[in-house]
Specification:
136 residues; alpha+beta; seven-stranded mixed beta sheet; globular
């Protein structure tokens, strides 16, 4: 089973909700995407992060900018997608974590289906790790 840790995000500094980055086996999960981000995506990525920042600060944001993803029965956590024009930021936001925000990773509109599948897999692994159970 992989090991996980969360650290307070340096990207999103919130005054209301804590925002964390998720690491698996010592690696920041969003790092792979951030390495391949190209200049044409930078503005959209910044705008998408701004929506996450506003929500974390307790502001209301348009429904189409923050979407709860359909629950996968094997994942017992609430998963969300923050949406830009091209960029998606995937998070776990659940009562079990005091409704704080755990940024899992980012993706693009083109890879959205695969990204959501990956998010479900990661969330299931993290939930098992967090609870210390193999049969979750």
């Amino acid at each position: 089973m992989p090991s996980f840790k969360i650290e307070v995000s340096e990207t999103v500094a919130s005054s209301t909700k804590k925002v964390f980055d998720l690491y698996r086996d010592g690696k920041l999960l969003s790092a792979k995407f951030l390495k391949k981000i190209d200049r044409s995506w930078e503005t959209d990525y910044s705008k998408t992060l701004a929506w996450l920042q506003k929500f974390a600060d307790g502001e209301l944001i348009p429904e189409q900018k923050r979407k709860e993803l359909v629950k996968n029965k094997s994942v017992m956590l609430k998963l969300f997608e923050y949406r830009g024009k091209l960029i998606r930021i995937y998070t776990i936001e659940d009562e079990i974590f005091d409704n704080d925000i755990i940024m899992v990773f980012s993706g693009t509109k083109k890879t959205q289906g695969n990204d959501i599948d990956s998010l479900n897999d990661i969330a299931k692994e993290y939930y098992k790790y967090y609870l210390g159970k193999d049969n979750v």
